[in-house]
Amino acid sequence: MTASLDRLVLNMPYLLFLGEETNPIKAKTAYGLYDWSVENCIGQTRLPGGTIDLGLAEMAPAEAAAAGARSLVIGVTPVGGRIPEHWSRVLIAAVEAGLDIVSGLHTPLESVPGLAQAAARSGARLVDVRRPPDNLPRATGKRRSGKRVAMVGTDCALGKKYAALALARAMRGQGIDADFRATGQTGIMIAGAGIAVDAVIADFIAGAAECISPDADPDHWDLVEGQGSMFHPAYAGVTLGLLHGSQADGLVLCHDPLRTHVVSWPDYPLPSLPVARDLYLQMARITNPAARLVGVSLNTSAMDEASAQEALERVERELGVPAFDPLRSPLDRVVASIMG
Amino acid sequence: MTASLDRLVLNMPYLLFLGEETNPIKAKTAYGLYDWSVENCIGQTRLPGGTIDLGLAEMAPAEAAAAGARSLVIGVTPVGGRIPEHWSRVLIAAVEAGLDIVSGLHTPLESVPGLAQAAARSGARLVDVRRPPDNLPRATGKRRSGKRVAMVGTDCALGKKYAALALARAMRGQGIDADFRATGQTGIMIAGAGIAVDAVIADFIAGAAECISPDADPDHWDLVEGQGSMFHPAYAGVTLGLLHGSQADGLVLCHDPLRTHVVSWPDYPLPSLPVARDLYLQMARITNPAARLVGVSLNTSAMDEASAQEALERVERELGVPAFDPLRSPLDRVVASIMG
Asked: Which residues cross the membrane (chains A, B) (predicted)?
């Protein structure tokens, strides 16, 4: 039972379920929630053998519910992305304690034996965040109030989510009314709301994007997580529909300076940054003629400090807007650029 | 029960069901089939009061089946797009005679009382052409053999389907091995195969397009029906994914010279033809670096002969490729341009 209208809205705070996981790479969702939404995580629960430890209070589902938790979030990815049978005991205990279950795994929660029945009895929701709401509207193209910055990129998986999260955090730190807007599963768990746009029916991509960043106060800023790339041979349709529906005032162009080709697609070279900028601005201006480039986000995680600094300076000279790495740069100059 | 893999394939020839329709506008599907696929239509069947007459032999479903028909195609659109209850008798008679039912209406055929059971008994299929196959692959981006021409446009609903149909017919008339490839419901019925790309999950748009125009002989040409427009605030994602997956060698840019704005979207002006050409070429070259503009299709249906001719000549001077109206121009020059 997902929300039936517009974007999903999750019930916070969370109890993080870490299973019997021992490999931190399989716990990326949990670490992401800890890094970006710890104020909404009131505890962790593990199964025997589990060694992942976020340092949160250890709680059984009933204890977490008593302490105010409203959802158990599956924070680890089991082998094959399927929910193991032996997890059903703790998941059923959670819904019996009144907690929603929130999952980004491929197995639908309703397929866990007994879980749907237990949820029906307690009124808890089973929320598969990959699954979009049922009755999304088509886009209207009507301008919405408030301001929006869209993350766009030269490829998938180069930091668009982190750029949006870091900018939202930096802007709020300056007292600016700003929200991260999620368009993928991990982002939705962090934000507590959103739509997995890549799972939407094609006719409704831009309509979903309109729901993700709704009308807001004139001084409010949405930082919209991007998906894919206009230069990607498989996923560009998602990228373009999301950009159109976002009606972006500002674009942040996200890039990895060490990447030369679409990741896993060696026959597809990445565009130059000026080519990417020009195309994204042209497309953004279809739904918002005032769209402008406000910054460039570089993923320099594989570079030493000196190389990273050199890359940031080079890009800044080339494009004439602040360049930053969302995980290592100060963000005051790009925030100033956003605010115009 | 739609096909479970890749594009839908319909069973021909057809018996056209015209219901009790009296309004030719509500029989557009039937007329489209008559105009473009009459060799696959062996009869028509009507209900009392119906006045639409294609001049085909009048046949009850059992007679049509005996004469070789393999599907009954619903060729009219009832009010609200829903299948009226009183149609169920003839639809059930058709599946009992072994005919598949092919529908482009919103009501799923399985919702017609008794129809699914009758189909299960006879082995007939209920094919909702709006519904894509269940297990589409993601795009691979791998170059396919054979040649492809994609119809792209400045807007929706300005003749992209007719351009592809007319070009396929003209090329076959010259002995060229060519196929119309359908991406929308009426086109699928005409071609007897295809996928409604706007109904596909967003992540699979380009993958669906790859299935629609599969590997073919080196001298084979696919004429791919286009959808939407890169300049459309709601549907551009479909357009771009379809273009990328089509790996077009040639583009035909489709336009209506009298249209100044996106139809039904008065706040969205249409692009100039050179702007549209440049954007579509840039995007087509992501998956096929050799893509080139081969022609411009103008919908001049609302213009007199002299104005139409003037518009065609003006566009031809502006873009330097043959301009044609698929329903009133000779097509030899554009076919020559396609063949390079």
From this structure: none
Give the rounded percent of residues in chain B with a pLDDT score beyond 90. Answer: 95
In whole angstroms, what is the distance from residue B92 CA to residue B61 CA? 10
What pLDDT was estimated at residue B6?
A: 67
Q: Where in chain A do CATH 3.40.50.300 domains reside?
A: 147-339
Q: Quick one: which of B79, B68, B76, B80 has its CA closest to B102?
A: B76
- Residues of B with a Cβ under 8 Å from any A Cβ are 138-142, 197-203, 205-207, 230-231, 233-242, 244, 265, 267-268, 279, 282-283, 286-287
Residue B77 has what DSSP assignment? -
Return the residue in B240, B267, B287, B288 with the most chain A beta carbons within 10 A, the one to mutate for interface testing.
B240
Residue type, B185: Q
Token pair 């394939």 in the structure block, residue: B9
Q: What is the mean pLDDT of residues A265-280?
A: 97
Please name the residue that has the structure tokens 């053998």: A49
CB contact under 8 A, B244 and A230: no
Averaged pLDDT of chain B: 96
Q: Taking CB atoms and an 8 Å limit, are A237 and B242 in contact across chains?
A: yes
Could B240 and A235 be called an inter-chain contact, meaning their C-beta atoms sit closer than 8 Å? no
- Taking the C-alpha atoms of residue B322 and residue B335, their distance in angstroms, rounded to an integer, is 9
Residue among A228, A223, A318, A313 at smallest CA distance from A273: A318
A160 three-class SS? helix
Q: What was the pLDDT predicted at B135?
A: 86
CA neighbor of A45 nearest in space, from A2, A99, A123, A8: A99
Secondary-structure class of domain B8-128 per CATH: alpha beta
The two tokens of residue A238 are: 């998602």
Specify the domain boundaries for CATH 3.40.50.720 within chain A. Answer: 8-128
pLDDT reported for residue B55: 97
Please state, in angstroms and rounded to a whole number, the distance separating the CA atoms of residues A249 and A260. 29
Cα B156 to Cα B153: distance, rounded to the nearest angstrom: 7
User: Mean pLDDT across chain A, nearest whole number?
Assistant: 96
Say if residue A305 is exposed, middle or buried (CB neighbours under 10 Å; 0-12, 13-18, 19+): exposed
How is domain B147-339 classified at the architecture level of CATH? 3-Layer(aba) Sandwich (3.40)
Q: How high is the pLDDT of residue A3?
A: 37
Q: pLDDT digits over B44-101, tens only?
A: 999 999 999 999 999 999 999 999 999 999 999 998 888 999 999 999 999 999 999 9
For A162-184, b/e burial (b = at least 16 CB within 10 A) is bbbbbbbebbeeeebebbbbbbb
Average pLDDT over residues B195-202: 97
Residues 6+ apart with CB under 8 A from B116: B109, B110, B126
